[in-house]
Amino acid sequence: xxxxxxxxxxxxxxxxxxxxxxxxxxxxxxxxxxxxxxxxxxxxxxxxxxxxxxxxxxxxxxxxxxxxxxxxxxxxxxxxxxxxxxxxxxxxxxxxxxxxxxxxxxxxxxxxxxxxxxxxxxxxxxxxxxxxxxxxxxxxxxxxxxxxxxxxxxxxxxxxxxxxxxxxxxxxxxxxxxxxxxxxxxxxxxxxxxxxxxxxxxxxxxxxxxxxxxxxxxxxxxxxxxxxxxxxxxxxxxxxxxxxxxxxxxxxxxxxxxxxxxxxxxxxxxxxxxxxxxxxxxxxxxxxxxxxxxxxxxxxxxxxxxxxxxxxxxxxxxxxxxxxxxxxxxxxxxxxxxxxxxxxxxxxxxxxxxxxxxxxxxxxxxxxxxxxxxxxxxxxxxxxxxxxxxxxxxxxxxxxxxxxxxxxxxxxxxxxxxxxxxxxxxxxxxxxxxxxxxxxxxxxxxxxxxxxxxxxxxxxxxxxxxxxxxxxxxxxxxxxxxxxxxxxxxxxxxxxxxxxxxxxxxxxxxxxxxxxxxxxxxxxxxxxxxxxxxxxxxxxxxxxxxxxxxxxxxxxxxxxxxxxxxxxxxxxxxxxxxxxxxxxxxxxxxxxxxxxxxxxxxxxxxxxxxxxxxxxxxxxxxxxxxxxxxxxxxxxxxxxxxxxxxxxxxxxxxxxxx
Length: 658
Description:
Elements: H1 45-52, H2 73-87, E1 95-101, E2 113-117, E3 135-140, H3 144-154, E4 159-160, E5 166-168, E6 181-184, H4 189-192, E7 203-204, H5 206-222, E8 225-233, E9 241-247, H6 250-259, H7 265-269, E10 276-281, E11 298-302, E12 307-311, H8 317-330, E13 337-340, E14 342-345, E15 351-355, H9 362-366, E16 372-375, E17 378-382, E18 385-388, E19 392-396, H10 406-411, E20 417-419, E21 422-423, E22 430-431, E23 442-446, E24 458-459, E25 462-469, E26 479-482, H11 484-493, E27 495-501, E28 507-513, H12 526-540, E29 543-548, E30 551-552, E31 560-561, H13 564-576, E32 584-586, E33 593-595, H14 603-606, H15 608-611, H16 615-637, H17 646-653
Parallel strand pairs: 1-3, 3-8, 5-20, 6-7, 6-11, 9-10, 10-12, 15-25, 25-29
Antiparallel strand pairs: 1-2, 4-5, 8-9, 11-12, 13-17, 14-15, 14-16, 17-18, 18-24, 19-23, 20-23, 21-22, 26-29, 27-28, 30-31, 32-33
Helix pairs in contact: 3-6, 11-12, 11-17
């Protein structure tokens, strides 16, 4: 025993197996403690947890060269909550909900509670509701890591895959519900939008929209917590749109975090009132007795109020494509063309647009390791050039492999969302060939996950506009150079052919037409977008091309698919400009200009008639397809555009003649 009455084991010698010896001393508080390592600066476990996370704060000026004067944390919180409360306000009550920021599962000590009155045009006196007595917690612009935690903890069917992505389920709906999508028809939209035969716009009235909005808002306000995303659309800073997404699921919040453009902390400082708001109450059905409702699902857009309501479907793609439809309305008002296309840029600044329906190879051909990816799906063409509308990619995953699509494969990592995929219950490795849940398995990830993505996602005016068709009839040439009128005709037609099973089991081609290669999303008449496209192509010297990635030497079942290697050679020749210098000849019926030779492509393949052994069968198939084009175009033939209807006549003359 030591003279001072303290117990001590010298630490110079090590203990068993080289471990340091514990120094046990009788201190002033008569407490024995472990001195083998430094102690933490905390007195309780809660205090220790509080030390684990540090506050993040804006550090850079909003505008270069101007001093940055951040608001106090309290001012910032109050401003954000006031804006969100206004968004969530019922139209039949004076005030928005009482809001508090943060996770309700955590202690609310020290959190500021904000209850904001928001005036509306009419405020009838109603008795207080239960939801008005409670606080709704707002989870505002959470990071992917925070959203992972929320999904794993609270949303059944959420798992982390072996690659680090968040695997989720979208419920009963695994795809969009176009028949349940409605647009408010009012005095303005009645004249501006495309209604009637062939149009994707199904009408509803203002009152019905407000009924559904109230239902969605009441549902969201009844929850303990809601997720709020404030983000942007359109990478062109002059024409970007501020969007707010209010949702009930971490899955939806992470999906939109990936798909919209992510603001910096500095940009959120001055975000203010959004230009458009989505109320996603997809877990709650609409009332089937409400006018215009045909199922328990309803996706409603009110362009005057700049709002979208989702009821009865949890499929996240409804938000992405709903906003795309809104951009198809807002952008043309600014003389900006909105496009359902892929877009890439060469190292010398030459930009190409790729249009094509599912199965035409749009994603494969626009993803080129020798070129920068501006975007894979939605773009704007303004006086400044092209810009991506989105901040992410929404890729199909069925039969995905690392060899065929390495960029998409590698992008599915931490931060990405995987919808409705099947994985091994132990290893969590995804089986992309398994279609047990749906064939429409998808991945949503930020565009910067693609190595050759151009950030910011903008580029100069396009040099080439490439229209892709997978022609299963086997009569369209592998590539054709189009006049402006032909470009408009084929852009409005939006043709491809699918292979569908008939009743007797024989498979035959089935023509599919989708105006502007995205009929489900356009708001205005297709000819308006076509006229804008032609005007921009003419002004900036862009060339139109029709590329067939389908069959050659016969229709499906007789001929064979055009080799991808040949198509890539064709696309390379378009990018390089060499195809403009080739010699051309004109085909019969469709009157297409086809090159006589392309380096790396057999010349006989370039004219489809050469590849058919049965010339009569070729002519029959050609006339059949021409007839389908003509029938489809009848919907658009009576729409008058241009001075003295001249443009309509030019477009009609550019179609098949027989």
